[in-house]
Design a protein that fits this description.
The chain is of the alpha+beta class and about 130 residues long. The chain contains five helices and five strands.
């Protein structure tokens, strides 16, 4: 089951990865199979499977059985589980706010992942702010 409050560094890693972003964008409006994602993202199915596992574990992507004549690639399909991501940088640290998508397209939950100022200083290796 996915973690409803993923770690900040994990979220930023996924959003910073070209293939992960391409997968999220491809699954934003339509459900996709692994084969479809590999073709759309121009990478191997093995690469897609690695990204899918991380994105699902982070709560950014949903997996469900594919029903009907198009049941290929293990019979699973994938859809983006989020609708909106906002990254806020301020004196309190870094905050990522995520609005989850529902079947109707409504926003239903807002998650926050924060890095306090002391952790931000450690990550930057400096205590100065810009």
């Amino acid at each position: 089951m996915s973690d409803p409050e993923p770690q900040l560094s994990e979220l930023l890693d996924h959003l910073g990865d070209d293939v992960s972003r391409a997968v999220l964008a491809a699954c934003a409006n339509d459900t996709r199979s692994v084969g479809e994602l590999a073709e759309l993202c121009d990478v191997s199915e093995a690469t897609i499977y690695r990204r899918l596992n991380h994105l699902i574990d982070s709560g950014l992507l949903e997996e469900r059985p594919r029903i009907g004549g198009n049941a290929v690639s293990g019979g699973k399909e994938y859809r983006t589980a989020i609708q909106h991501v906002e990254i806020v940088l301020d004196e309190e640290g870094i905050t990522v706010q995520i609005d989850d998508a529902t079947e109707s397209g409504d926003r239903c939950r807002r998650s926050r992942c924060s890095t306090p100022t002391s952790a931000r200083r450690t990550e930057r290796g400096s205590s100065t702010s810009s």
